[in-house]
């Protein structure tokens, strides 16, 4: 169990990750009294356990394009390249990742980052990153790895057991075209203002959506109705607490990849059914990196992560895979939509 928090408090923090209902008093149905939940969430935020409490959106349904990118860069230039990448507003995550275990003679990219921008702005923003990188390294070996299919993406950590807590078991594969977004809803300026308010930290009070309504010039009922509509349309995944998973004890995080020779959709669905997997995608292969099924796993220690990687591969009948340890975190932030 997490040090400094009671078992009941850990239960509540786990429930807050799953999300609250868009109702006037969302904290009243928790395992602690409403005031205690508010105090607990404020404490977890101030101590750095929770990164933020707010809206978690489907970027594609907001009209955004999000792509995983890999940069092959010499170790002595990696920090410089990371600084360039992290300076881009569209970059939300940036890590140094290195293969674990015996080397197979292949040279793999060391810098991995996620770029997200409005569809019409994406190519220009990534081209700008390439251009600035070119001032510091040559050649710029930047590979784009858009999601071909998404099998699983939502993350909840059980703070009592320090284990994964399954949120959406049996996730169904969703096709995500590499060159277009999902059908985007048309958002008014007030809608955009509401998204901007929700995608960061919302007020932690007994009636958070009333406070949000005051910030955007809407009534509380209008905000709640809009959130319910967005949730039903798949625009809003949930309003929830987002952990600093390293602070919560999940320090050994790895990107796992496999080459799938047969039915990649069946393999992806089976992999997504593993409760320890937090993200699962099919991505295109590229020269020197013949992997197309990706998953993220998190545990408290590297021996546990290696054991978990081996167990998942065996359970799902996957072979020829590699595990890439996230050895340094250069940037991890929540997306600022319609900024």
- Any idea of the CATH topology of the domain at 7-51 and 184-242? Arc Repressor Mutant, subunit A
Give the overall shape. Answer: globular
Fraction of residues in β-strands = 25-35%
What is the highest CATH level, the class of the domain at 7-51 and 184-242?
A: Mainly Alpha
Give the proportion of residues in helices: 25-40%
Helix/strand order: HHEEHEEHEEEEEHHHEEHEEHE
Any guess at the CATH architecture of the domain at 7-51 and 184-242?
Orthogonal Bundle
The pLDDT mean sits at: 90
Q: Tell me the total number of β-strands.
A: 14
Number of helices: 9
N- to C-terminal separation? 38 Å
**Which stretches are poorly predicted, pLDDT < 50 over at least 5 residues?**
162-181
Radius of gyration: 20 Å
| Helical/strand content category | alpha+beta
Strand order of the largest sheet: 5-2-4-3-14-11-13-12-6-9
Largest sheet: 10 strands, antiparallel
Brief sketch in words of this structure:
The chain has 339 residues and is of the alpha+beta class.
List the defining traits of the structure above:
Arc Repressor Mutant, subunit A, two-stranded antiparallel ribbon, 14 strands, 339 residues, alpha+beta
Could you outline the blueprint of secondary structure elements for this entry?
Layout: H1 7-18, H2 34-46, E1 50-57, E2 64-72, H3 78-86, E3 91-99, E4 111-118, H4 119-134, E5 141-145, E6 149-152, E7 157-158, E8 163-164, E9 174-175, H5 189-198, H6 208-216, H7 220-233, E10 236-243, E11 252-258, H8 264-272, E12 277-282, E13 293-299, H9 302-316, E14 322-332
Antiparallel strand pairs: 1-10, 2-4, 2-5, 3-4, 3-14, 6-9, 6-12, 7-8, 11-13, 11-14, 12-13
Helix pairs in contact: 5-6, 6-7
